[in-house]
Automatic annotation (TrEMBL):
GO cellular component labels: cell outer membrane; efflux pump complex
Pfam family for this entry, one: OEP
Subcellular location field: Cell outer membrane
Main location: membrane
Provenance organism: Bacteroides reticulotermitis
Lineage: Bacteria, Pseudomonadati, Bacteroidota, Bacteroidia, Bacteroidales
Protein name, per record: Outer membrane protein TolC
Length: 420
């Protein structure tokens, strides 16, 4: 009894210093602490850099080239005049060329590249949302596991109290000759078994608390009290599914639409201005065998029809990807609804089981009291009485187990549908 009072005092002290830990608080801190959260910033930075690079396509483009060549023959003027020496072109030629190109219209290529960058970044972000949302399930499992172990430890302490009381009674019976040392040993064995079970439960709860501490990113006290969530049955098997996976499927479809529009860019004409400045031998005057500077400026049109050969198949590939995406979405919704139906039935089943828990405990308590009276009268063995004490303890554990399992099933259904 003193041990129970000390434990309760310690738990109250910890609660006062630290405050009760809630499920929503654990989920929030896990979302903020998990290393994967840093990828949101990386995705945004990558998007900014890619958009900046795409915008630079409108800037003037410079290209520098140089060449030296020797050719076996050159163009000659087939005219000979007396007293005039017409020199032909040199066979060794040299050129250094600097060209400036200014894009006027590229068929919408830069604009589509920006749209693709934004669409891809949105897909990556929504995929990250899916991965981050999955953390809530891990937090739920640990949180309700700790609650369940806490209930089992509490029932274990009550059983130890019952066994200690029985040990004192049987000690008195031994003195009166009603019981013997073997009966005391039987009670002692049950006490030791219960103590061993407590060590196992406490060790497992400590491991769960440490794992929860890692997820939330801060050290939780080993004896911290976890608040039991409210029993909120706001969802059912007919509830709307609001999972982030659905948004992920939607943005993937948007990305496919952008890809399909980008196919049109491949067969559009490109317009641009260009300026070339060069120094070489020969210059623009091919008849002068000497180095000379020169420049050329103009407008350039390029129109490549090669993409038309594969355009139809490219669109078919995108259409197949769209159908595959729709199929994956349907599979996800089917499996989710199947899971919702299973969880909803588990909730209803647990509610029906819990209707008789209190009555079972009351009857087990009466049986235990009757067994203790029979032992006092010498009409029942201590072993049989211990069995009834254990049965009463198991009925209380079963009720506590049902309460936590019901809450766990309700919050699993809330996770499956993403309802608050």
């Amino acid at each position: 009894m003193k041990r129970m009072i000390f434990s309760l005092f310690w738990l109250c002290s910890v609660t006062g210093m630290y405050g009760q830990i809630t499920l929503k608080e654990c989920q929030r801190k896990t979302q903020e602490n998990y290393p994967l959260v840093r990828q949101y910033g990386l995705i945004e930075k990558t998007k900014e850099y890619s958009l900046a690079n795409a915008a630079k396509g409108y800037l003037p483009q410079f290209a520098l080239s140089a060449k030296a060549s020797y050719q076996s023959d050159v163009t000659e003027i087939p005219i000979k005049m007396a007293g005039i020496d017409i020199k032909g072109l040199p066979k060794d030629q040299y050129q250094v060329l600097l060209e400036l190109q200014q894009n006027i219209w590229d068929g919408g290529g830069i604009r589509m590249k920006k749209k693709q960058t934004e669409a891809n970044a949105e897909v990556d972000k929504e995929k990250l949302n899916v991965d981050m949302y999955a953390l809530n399930e891990r937090v739920n499992d640990l949180y309700f596991g700790i609650l369940l172990l806490g209930e089992q430890l509490e029932q274990n302490a009550l059983l130890q109290e019952d066994l200690a009381r029985s040990f004192r009674q049987i000690t008195a019976y031994v003195e009166n000759g009603i019981a013997n040392q073997a009966d005391l040993d039987a009670v002692k064995v049950e006490e030791l078994n219960t103590r061993q079970k407590r060590v196992e439960l406490a060790s497992l709860r400590l491991a769960y608390m440490q794992m929860l501490s890692l997820l939330v990113g801060e050290k939780l006290p080993d004896e911290a009290v976890l608040e039991k969530p409210l029993r909120e049955e706001t969802v059912s098997a007919a509830s709307e599914i609001r999972r982030p996976e659905l948004t992920w499927f939607d943005v993937q479809k948007t990305s496919l639409q952008v890809r399909e529009k980008a196919l049109d860019v491949g067969y559009m004409p490109h317009f641009g201005l260009f300026v070339q400045g060069a120094y070489g031998n020969p210059g623009l005057n091919m008849l002068k065998d000497k180095f000379a500077p020169y420049y050329i400026a103009g407008v350039r049109l390029s129109w490549n029809f090669g993409s038309l050969y594969t355009l139809k198949n490219d669109r078919r590939v995108i259409e197949n990807s769209r159908r595959q995406l729709d199929s994956n979405r349907d599979v996800f919704l089917f499996n989710t609804r199947l899971q919702m139906t299973q969880q909803d039935h588990a909730i209803r089943s647990m509610e029906k089981q819990m209707q008789d828990d209190d009555e079972i405990i009351r009857l087990r308590s009466n049986i235990r009291k009757a067994a203790e009276a029979k032992v006092a009268n010498g009409t029942l063995t201590v072993t049989e009485m211990l069995r009834e004490i254990t049965n009463e303890s198991l009925s209380k554990q079963t009720k506590a187990l049902h309460e936590i399992q019901l809450l766990m099933n309700i919050y699993q259904l809330k996770y499956t549908t993403n309802h608050e």
